[in-house]
Amino acid sequence: MAKKEEVRGMFNKIAHRYDYLNHFLSLGIDKLWRKKLRRRLGKHNPQSILDVATGTADLAIELAKLKPEKIIGVDIAETMLEMGDKKIARKNLQNIISLQQADSEDLPFADNSFDAATISYGVRNFETPLKGLKEIHRVLKPGGVLFILEFGMPKTFPVKQLYSFYFNFILPFWGKVFSGSYESYKYLPESVKTFPYDKAFTDLLDQAGFAQTKATKISQG
Hints:
Elements: H1 3-25, H2 29-42, E1 48-52, H3 58-63, E2 70-75, H4 78-90, E3 97-101, E4 114-120, H5 129-139, E5 140-149, H6 159-179, H7 182-194, H8 199-207
Parallel strand pairs: 1-2, 1-4, 2-3, 4-5
């Protein structure tokens, strides 16, 4: 089975508990990270935003505070999108945010369509990260910006050891307790370990065609 189909099935399986677990397992810090991204993106005043791997639309909903003309969220997992649509409706944001199922490596949009693109914790799940990043570059307008939130494994003692303990033991255990899926929350630390970190990731962005790439550490990771 292709990785993207495995990822789709995994996120569909945990969609009903995904938001709760995100907030619980990050001790609520995930909300602060999204707010920080929103503030930084706001300096560019984007009117059209593409949120890739939008999941249940947490980041898209946060970005609606910037009052753009439109935000389109795409994700491969349809059950995650269903949860996101319900949240958008509860907040009466349907006039700004729309969600659709799409493959991040084959986006259904014309070249030069968006002022900005965002991804939160999604690049690790791309089957071919470089291909997905090139697709995002394609649909951005000249001068458009890409903001990414992603996990990384720190290299320094003792932060590396603390992260490893959390990802390898705490996260899978409580993920299984609350979602019933040990495999899904075991996947996360494994994907973090193998994902390009810091300069290796900005090099990947350079290869995809982006300029002025920069990695900023948040919470040491």
